Amino acid sequence: MKGKKWLLSIVVVVCCIALLGLSPAMGAKSKFDPSKMGDMSDLDLSNPVIPTGDTIKIAIVASFSGPAAAVGDIYFASVQSVAHDYNKRGGILVDGKKKLVQVIKANHESKVPIAKKVSERMVLQEKVDVLWGTNGSHLMKVINQVADKYKTIAVSAAAVSDELYDAQNFSRYSFMTSISTSQVGRGMAYYYGQVRKKETKFYILCQDYLFGHSIAGGFKAGLKEYYPDAELVGEDYHKLFLTDFAPYLTKVKAAGAEVVYTGDWIPDAANLLVQARQMGLDLPFANLFINNPPFLQQVGIEGTDGLVHIGQIGSDGKAFKTEGQIKYYKAWNDQYPKWKKPFDTTTYEHGTGTIGAYRMQTYWLLDVIERAGSTDPEKIIKVWENDTWEDVNGTVYKMRGIDHKTERDLFIELYVPPEQQKESMNIEPYYWFKDCSNTGPSYKLPADKVTPVMDPKLKDIRKGS
Amino acid sequence: MMNKMLKWILWLAGFVFLILYPKLFGIYYSNVFVTFAIFALYATSYNLLLGYTGLLSFGHAMFFGTGAYGTALALTHISGFPLIPALLAGALAAAILALILCPIMVRVGGTAFAMLHLAFGGLMYVLALKLRHITGGEDGIGGFDIPPFSIPGIVSFDMTDPLQFFYFAMVVLIGSIWILWFFTKTPFGQIMIAVRDNAKRVDYLGFRVPQTKAVIYVFSGAFCGVAGAVYALFQNLISAEDGFHVMTSFAPIMLTMVGGIGSFFGPIFGSAIFGILEELTTRYTERVELVFGLVLIFVIMFAPMGFVGTVKMIKEKWFTRQGV
User: What is the CATH class of A182-311+410-445?
Assistant: First the structure.
């Protein structure tokens, strides 16, 4: 009897030790497995192979014209590469049939009424299974409304405002696979207040719409929480697609800021950085989207040195730690030299960073559809709510069941000159870009420090339902 | 007698067509039809000024946008606000704006009238962008609850259902267009035309021209507000871009000119033509405005009387030939 007790105790202790030793990643319900990737040697984004007929249809609702046209191309490249991978594997078994993945471009022209019209057209006429969006939280709001009205799955892979998933705007058909503004703001404040502990004077300069105010709000809340000694020396919001930043930059200079915090995305992000450097403003920009290589290259090594980027995909230190990561990276990078316009610019050279984040989110979506075994929205919702999934770098994404926001680690990337980039880029040629600064040292911000905010009202509503 | 009977048959056929439309063409084209009807009402009410009174406005979107924002704000801030009062709130907001502006507007005409509207329209656009806490700024106001159309104890229709909303929108929009048509047939409507043709003579006849213009102005503004209110309910969203943008101001001008200036039904045909054009062109290019511009140039150069005028001319020529 005594012996049995001892044996039981040993088993319990061994199990506990084993459980403690497991990384959180191993707890994920599913994961991205590079060894299962299809043959990507014919991936040509400029001449994509897009299947038609009875397919799984994903509509990318985004800007494919106007000042933000480049953003739509980035989304298309990201999603199409994942679709290509699945199609090369033979498709996905849904509703008893293997189906290929079809990606459809839906241009919302950055306009609210067109976003609604084109989303409805995708759902009602093209019969798409997923609406994937978008640049502009105000436009994602419209996409979510359409998804809710016609009971179609929507994925917010690029719009990051927390308000999209509050009690007023929540739709059970929409999932936020991207990071949220509260995560970005709190993450950046955590880095400056708890990790770096140097600069104290911050200036907020964001776009004057839902996202801009939301990302600024996240940072202010983060400073209160993680860096109470910090001082906010100025706060400004500018019109979308502004061409002259001089008045704002003059104010930044006069305020004596040490860091400019911005959520601007291209083309604003590009114009802001270029004009700041032209005006002799050498402050670091703490940013989410100042990472598009062509304009970083335009500014040069010196002008981009010291930028602080927060990303949703990355790694703590070296970028490549496993053979699988290298295989995944090369599946894209090896094909890049043969691509033609608009995919021949340095934006598309690596398939990591923002593009990497969009690719991973799309892999997650298709993995969920595969596990649901159906394109039926109800079955997808059932699988996706509270799902956990591990990306190529081992980061675990958790889809919060109540508000459909994703909990995950974030990464701070410090931009350094090419010779120092090997700290991150640890394979040939040991730099990301030779004519601009890019990721060098990087830090992981643990998921529990950057949890996305949840609207308490939503908790009550969803519990009630 | 035969002619009257034919008219009745045509009306009945149109009525049956409208009832069967969603079944025949599906939800997507029903939504396209609602958009057409909203812009038909917007352009028809605008035509009261341009076609009937001879006043060209470059800023009529301010009434459309005010109507839309009026309804959206009412539904956002007043919980349980019913549908019809919400609709009327939009119309009332636009009518009040017209009432505020009319002391200035009725005393000017021609270029001054057009440019003043352009200025006030621009002002409303900027205000909608800047007063973020009221108007939602660039994001606009959206996601408000759309109340059901209900007669307590008798019937209740869910307005979030696209099919039921289609019928509701048709009743409101066609009803409004009928009121406008009736308005033009009253003696006051005849004075309206007289003001356009010779304001001085109307004045000599003892009618008060500024007051007449003011009534028409407020009436036109209020019905633009109705169109805006239905638009806000239909989209469940209104932003400065679609409410107050200069292109929204130019839209009724183009619809009226292409459909037929001076003809009551011209703007309705214009709206239909542009609706079809937009539906066809957006499938191939996002340069819809370019196509619209080319059509407008073509109409101005080769068919200045618009669609209705051209049809009338062809009909007359054909009948003359038949007579010969």
Answer: alpha beta
- Structural domains in chain B plus CATH codes: 28-323 (1.10.3470)
Q: Does A238 touch chain B (CB under 8 A)?
A: no
Per-residue pLDDT of chain A (465 residues; tens, 9 = 90+): 555 666 666 666 655 554 444 444 456 889 999 999 999 999 999 999 999 999 999 999 999 988 889 999 999 999 999 999 999 999 999 999 999 999 999 999 888 888 988 999 999 999 999 999 999 888 999 999 999 999 999 999 999 999 999 998 999 999 999 999 999 999 999 999 999 999 999 999 999 988 899 999 999 999 999 999 999 999 999 998 899 999 999 999 999 999 999 999 888 999 999 999 999 999 999 999 999 999 899 999 999 999 999 999 988 889 999 999 999 999 999 999 999 999 999 999 999 999 999 999 999 999 999 999 999 999 999 999 999 999 999 999 999 999 999 999 999 999 999 999 999 999 999 999 999 999 999 999 999 999 999 999 988 877 655
Judge: B239–A107 Cβ closer than 8 Å, yes or no.
no
Model confidence pTM above 0.90: no
A430 C-beta neighbours (distance < 10 Å), count: 13
**A65, A138, A238: best to mutate for the B interface, most B CBs within 10 A:** A138
* Interface with chain A: mutation pick from B25, B139, B234, B237, highest number of A CBs within 10 Å: B139
- How many CB atoms lie under 10 A from the CB of residue B324? 5
Q: Which DSSP string corresponds to A174-212?
A: EEE-S--HHHHHHHHHHIIIIII----EEEEEEESSHHH
Within an 8 Å CB–CB cutoff, is residue B288 touching chain A?
A: no
Could you tell me if B163 lies within 8 Å of chain A, comparing CB atoms?
no
Query: CATH for A34-179+322-407?
Result: 3.40.50.2300
- Give the Å distances, CA to CA, from B143 to A165, B76, B77, B136: 12, 8, 12, 12
Q: What is the ipTM of this complex?
A: 0.79
A115 touches chain B (CB under 8 A): no
Whether B53 and B102 have beta carbons less than 8 Å apart is answered as no
- Report residue A299 as tokens: 């500014």
